[in-house]
Amino acid sequence: MKKLFLIPLMIVLVSALIFGGCAAPTPAPTPLPDMIAIAANRIGAGGHYMSATAGELIRKQTGIKVRVIPVASHMARLTPVRSGEALFETVEGTSLYATQLGIMEFATYEWGPQPMQMVWTGLSYLGAMTTKAHDDINTIADLRGKRVAFIVDPAARITQRALIAFGGLTEDDVVVVDVAGYMDQFTALKADKIDAFVSCNTMTVAKLLELEATPAGIKWLHFPADDAEGWKRLHKIAPWMVADSCPDAPGGITKENPLASYCFFFGFAAYEQASPDLIYLVAKTIGDNLDQLREEHATWRFFTIDSALAEGYPHPYHAGTVRYFKEIGRWTDEHEKRNQSLLEVQNKLLDRWQVTIDQAVAEGWKDDKLLEEWTKRQAEISGYTPPTIE
Q: Which of 136, 157, 176, 346 has minimal Cβ neighbours within 10 Å of its Cβ?
């Protein structure tokens, strides 16, 4: 394997394997791999642009070639990461949380809880939207009786159910209009097939500008951080969401007039057993070059060291990234305490799953029985019971 040049301050060689075997007490350093892979969203999505720009930066800084594998669904992206074909994947908080707990589509003999951990995240500002023509819709509660878009996907449905719960509503309180995917919401609102939608990523600038330019314009519906009851209702359904304030988006959102928004994890995640040295290298390459990445693509515009260390996400950080944060003096005792608490939950889930799956095999449980039992058993550890989605 040819000799490769490392980024500044990188003074140790890292493992050539994405997933290592049994480590010796003092493992000998091995060369960097020639190539790593990222399982990303399809071409055109923000996650794909993130992966492509980060991959090119990693190549320039370290000499490691990066292959971006475009895949539509989270489970399909996770598969090559699980097998070791890819080092990490792009994923958002709803899917990452379900993966970590092993709930919903992961409550199967083939999966169960997966020890996935954050590699890097930024603020994925999201909000709810309608048009200025709807003068009677100014809050989430005002959506009662209105046509609201719901994406035909179980994980997305849970998110959208949580968002209307913020206003004290359920699906029975609105007129549900099914749409195929995230981008279809914009088309439906523009065509006046819906009155509002409640899952809008402010990084989807092109679509927002397109809507803003229509005669009806756009209007944001806020999620005020001080609405304790609203957040309590939301968190019961979607505990992976946190309150934040977005300072920059089409539709009049500025630092002086920010959007009271909700956020959840959006970024890169890897398995716990991924090489800490490689994850450190990725984290350092990203963290030391965020200004350059923001110039490369707008997807990176809300990614900062502060946003990467934002509190409230129910996902632990990988040891390799923790090492980078410690190196730059940004990892506090409070960060460590919280991360260890999240890792403890993760380990308890894995232990409980092993006991559960052993019992399931011995007693010949059907898939429905496994789903029912695991949903209850994981809730004793995580405190979360996912809502039933028809």
A: 136
